[in-house]
Amino acid sequence: MMFLWCVLVLVNLVSVSTSNNAGVKVRLTQKMLEYGRQIGIASIQQKLRSIKVPDISGTEKVDPIGKVQYSFTGMQIVNLGLPKSALGLVPDTGVMLSIGDAYINLHGNWRVKYLRIIKDSGTFDLAVSELTISTTIAVMSDDTGRPTVSMTNCAATVGSVNVKFHGGASWLYNLFSSFINKALRNALQKQICPLVADSIAEMNPHLKTLNVLAKVDQYAEIDYSMVGSPVISNTSIDLDLKGEFYNIGQHKEPPFSPTPFSLPYQDTNMLYIGVSGFSINSAGFVYHSAGALRLYITDDMIPSGSPIRLNTRTFGTFIPQIAKMYPGLMMKLLVETVKEPIIILEPNNMTVQAISTVTAYAIQPNSTLSPLFVLNLEGSVSADIYVTDLKLAGNLTLNKINMSLSKSYVGPFQVTSLDNIFTMVLKIAVIPKINARLQEGYPLPAIGKMQLVNSQLQVLKNSLLIGTDVQFTG
């Protein structure tokens, strides 16, 4: 049953972190509860339509006739409504669902036998009104860190039962009314709560789809386990998630820790997700540690129309020693980070600072590489971050670079003479490669067939804030 997905999607996960500070925060608002209530009522209404009212039979003594044998059979629900309902939060406790003024209409057959030989029969319509249901849902955790739900208590009360008989002797109607009311009231009340419990239990297979450990690619995965208990107020549920990138199978902590951050108060969307600078920077640490932030650049990566080629002739124009020592050879560049890049979040602005080296090689006829020089490269890029599907994606734009000579194998030269070449190489070869990966996106915490609708992203001081509505498609 889906009606609590959007309320309990991440509640009470097993905490596997030793840190009390979250990398990701999630807030579910009253608007989310209302959406969950609408889905839930439709689900419960469908479930209650499966009520099977058992045949009822017995014997009553009626003066002066004596014993009257009766039976009510073939009772089927023809209409059912749940016009009033509420799904609310109990601060520091859990979730409560209440349904009021519900009604059920049934149709069935009646039959009697009395004075041993006289038989009579007909049909009846039964209207159950003022039906109320109240239930509390508990949330627990399984051994995988995913939530499980169960009903802790339930009360179902049938307010009144009205019967309209068709056919047969009219004097029998009052007789029926005196005991069918009690018999059917008990039969219904015994079935309603078990059906509600079944509906809640049906959530658990869906909750197992929660991406507590979300794989990103061959290098990284994201840990979305809880780092503390959910904070439940009258209007929202706030969840603290670890929100940390790790190398696949190697959960090594970065040389920095998450710092406290909070979500600004907003309630126009169903769901708010805050992503801290710690979470984003942990991605940089992971990819640097995995050696993923290194790239060989060859001439075939340069547009064919460019006058600048990766060969000793082009570079010999700026560094004559190269053309003299390695005439007529193609070249290869290795760009790799020296340390993890640093992502800085300021209001409406996100920048990435990276310290790298560029090693230039001449490619010998036998394919061996002869080193030419090593440059220190400090670059700054601006990032445009956005939400697509259930992922956080981005696009980088180069701001500036600063270069210095680390080592030369061809003698001294002026590094500034290479500024234009390396700016061009970064713009047309390196940045597009990074953007291609960023545009594939990084998974956000999600469950089942969940879709984000009308998502908006704000860059705040030291965090990103995603405000979104939610739809479940199955």
- What number of structural domains do the residues give? 2
Which CATH class of the largest domain is shown? Answer: Alpha Beta
The dominant shape is: rod-shaped
CATH topology of the largest domain: Bactericidal permeability-increasing protein, domain 2
Task: Estimate the mean pLDDT confidence.
Answer: 87
CATH architectural name of the largest domain = Super Roll
Measured as a percent range, the helix fraction is 10-25%
Radius of gyration: 35 Å
CATH level-four homologous superfamily name of the largest domain: Bactericidal permeability-increasing protein, domain 2
Instruction: Work out the number of β strands.
Output: 23
Summing up helix and strand content along with how strands pair, one would put the structural category as alpha+beta
Largest sheet: 7 strands, antiparallel
Characterization of the model:
There is one protein chain. With 474 residues, the protein is α+β, with helices and mostly antiparallel strands. The chain has 2 domains: 31-207, Bactericidal permeability-increasing protein, domain 1 (Super Roll); 213-472, Bactericidal permeability-increasing protein, domain 2. Helix content is 22%, strand content 45%. Helix 2 (30-48) crosses helix 3 (171-201). The model is unreliable at 1-19 (pLDDT under 50).
Which short descriptors sum up this protein?
alpha+beta; 8 helices; 23 strands; 22% helix; Bactericidal permeability-increasing protein, domain 1; 7-stranded antiparallel β-sheet; Bactericidal permeability-increasing protein, domain 2; 2 domains; 474 residues
